[in-house]
Amino acid sequence: MSGGRLMLEGKTVLVTGATGGIGEAIVERLASSGATPVIHFSRGNTQAEALLARISGKGFIVQADLSHPSGARDLWQQARAVAGDIHGLVNNAGIRSEVTVEAEPEEWDAVWRREFQINFFAAADLCKEAILHFRERGDGRIINIASRAGLRGYVGNAMPYGATKAAILNLTKSIARSFGPEGVTAIAVAPGWVRTEMVQPRIDRSGEAAAVADIPIGRMAAPSEIGELVAFLLLSSQASLNGATIDVNGGSYIR
Ligand code: NAD
Fold it and tell me: Does residue 77 lie in a domain region?
């Protein structure tokens, strides 16, 4: 392996939702770049154990349900307890729920609140803990996985998703502006469609051709593309990307 690929050596990085499609790719790429990933999962540890085995056991596993208001804080404490110092945080866990304006108020409320709890409040709580830890050392980076949906608006039957992603984009910018002077940097990634389980219902419903129709390169991103990008964004040398939103959408939304 070339020296260039080991440029994250000595860095411990907490990745939330690490057993999902994008999360696994991030963990694998971080490990092959020399970092020590902290693999977060919510349910069933088989996948987390298998992922840890794939990176030759060179990481840690932590469990937490981020739908619970105290889930993120518990997760941070566990991660610190098993891994010690943490140098990077990747807020990747997320859900995409559907609810229409015709829904009963109870359902509407429940979906909006759960979406914000998992996609935004948990990420914000983890950012808080990470900022406090990183500023002690004067160094640390946060990568927030947002979405194209947070930039251009989203479909009427999944509006909470777009709103949570817009919120996390704004949070990333506030952190970058406010804590950069203390060595805490933050970058957002805004993917369009990435080929994971999250997009399978869309493909099943309308077919592959329709799903990629508005993507000029004619395909969805592979999870490995996000993994590669996140490893790059975590390089110490990339501090000038502080506050940036990186589009990964094949040209389907050019700002
Ligand atoms: P995925 O469904 O494969 O993974 C989502 C992860 O979030 C899983 O590991 C899951 O366990 C975790 N998670 C869900 N609910 C949780 C809870 N209550 N507590 C803790 N963890 C929980 O989806 P993915 O495609 O890998 O998505 C990863 C991130 O990328 C998400 O934030 C998603 O919004 C974002 N994203 C995905 C796409 C796409 O097209 N796949 C596009 C843009 C952004």
Answer: yes
Q: Whose CA is nearest to atom 37 of ligand 1?
A: 194
- pLDDT tens-digit series, residues 201-213: 888 888 889 989 9
Question: Do the domain assignments include residue 255?
Answer: no
Of all atoms in ligand 1, which is nearest to the CA of residue 42?
A: 20
The tally of domains found in the chain comes to: 1
- For the stretch 210-229, what's the b/e string if a residue is b when 16 or more beta carbons lie within 10 angstroms of its beta carbon? ebbeebeeeebbebbbbbbb
Reduce the DSSP state of residue 13 to 3 states and report it.
strand
Would the pTM count as exceeding 0.85?
yes
**Could you tell me how many residues make up the chain?**
255
User: Hey, how many other C-beta atoms are within 10 angstroms of the C-beta on 250?
Assistant: 20
- Please give the number of the atom of ligand 1 that sits closest to the Cα of 221: 40
**Ligand 1 binding pocket, CB closer than 6 Å:** 17, 19-23, 42, 65-67, 92-95, 118, 145, 147, 191, 193-194, 196-199
Whether pLDDT at 48 is above 80:
yes
What percentage of the chain has pLDDT greater than the value 90? Answer: 91
Answer yes or no: is 253 within a domain. Answer: no
Task: Yes or no: say if 151 and 245 are a contact pair by the CB < 8 Å rule.
Answer: yes
Residue 55 Cα to ligand 1 midpoint, Å, equals 21
Identify the domain containing residue 38 by its residue range.
2-248
Write phi, then psi, for 105 (nearest 5 degrees): -55, -35
Ligand 1 atom nearest residue 24's Cα: 26
* Pocket perturbation via mutation, ligand 1, pick of 42, 74, 195 by most ligand atoms within 8 A of CB: 42
Q: What is the CATH number of the domain that holds 141?
A: 3.40.50.720
**Catalytically annotated residues:** 161
Residue 181 falls within a domain, yes or no? yes
